[in-house]
Amino acid sequence: MTVFPPGLMLVLPSALAAAQERGRLMDRTPDGVLLDPRIYTFGRLEAEMSPWFISDRKPIPPLGREMLLGRIIDEEADDSSPSGRTMGPGLRRRLLDLLDQLKLGGVSPETFDRLLLESGRDAARHLARIHARYEARLLDQGLIDHSGIRRAILEGLRSGRVPPCLERIREVNLVGFSRLTPFQTELIGAVSQAVDRVRLEFSGPEWLFELNLEQHPDWPDNPFQESLAALRHLEGLNPAGGGALEIVLRPPRDPSSPAGRWMAAGLFRPWPPEGRAPQAEPGLAVFAAPGRYAEIETIGRRIWDLLDRGVRPESVALALPDLGRTGPMVEDVFRRFRLPLFFRRGEPLAVQAPVRTLLALVRLARSDWERERVLDLLASPFLNLNFDWTRAAGLCARAGVTDERAGGGWEFNLRRLAGNSR
After folding, report:
1. pLDDT tens-digit profile of 260-308?
2. CA-to-CA distance for 146 and 163, rounded, in angstroms?
3. 195 neighbors 220 (Cβ within 8 angstroms)
4. pTM
5. How far is the C-alpha of 18 from the C-alpha of 20, rounded, in Å?
């Protein structure tokens, strides 16, 4: 039997990382018993804290928020206001996003109205009125939205209140993060006031802390820009350093090949890489281009060479991060090079048959082998068992699987069924 270190909480970036860490600890436990593993994600931490901070108010679901805002907009609507009855669901969600940002930032409806007035944007003051009525309606009905829950958590922690999940915790370790959202940043700072020590291990390139945000405000393509600002904000909460809040920068895992290491060293770096790219192993090519259009041209030349060697056009795929920005460049380059091109527009990757198959298997494992999903798998062509779902359902019933999930007795009951059927 192994006991998780007392007074320690481990926060990981995803549920998958948390499950892998539990599995690693179980493998190191001789008898397979691990007591009190306090392994969290930000989502689980928020879920356990929220009931304690909002005990007197009931959460409102997302659809309820949209319906409430729609009624308020209808009440506020007039012919001169852009927030009239023509506002569609997309614009309503954008307005809700704005209200969420205002609430998380601690901007009250009165402050929002004053800021609009001082900036000379009188035409936009109807947004402040909508904001005020939305908050008043939530309060009157005893409801609270998601951003309100988050705000209550932050304010409660900063005021010295400690939820039950942190009562016996002295140290919180956050490991494996390569980016932080604004709320996660604020939550880390608030938690540091409730425990003795918070240690954040941030994964990023070694040159990350060499950047100066003031000198480089126009780097929208650098994905570390937002996280760097978050880390600087956390450093400002603990200017002495080495106290309640400690930030440790961990370099990303070193790739196995010279070409991969060269590419990782220059990835997201705002200045050009030094020297030429090393020779890549078969199947991987690394090249530098002076711009996006030149990059597409280089890719087009490589595809032209593949087709010239007899490769079928339908066996060549080009993956792009954003068709909206690079799609027109690809169309222009492929037209010039006389390359066949077919865009799959408006069809998410998740609806493709191979991806659907993989996702179905992943959902089955993540559902703790839910009975209906197990039946679907038994009746599917993946296992080639050649019997329909009714026979699979009967087999489950005879094996004693009567609840919604297969549970720990699944294998035992099947073996018992096999023994009784001989």
Report:
1. 667 666 665 666 667 776 765 666 666 767 778 888 888 888 888 788 7
2. 18
3. no
4. 0.57
5. 5
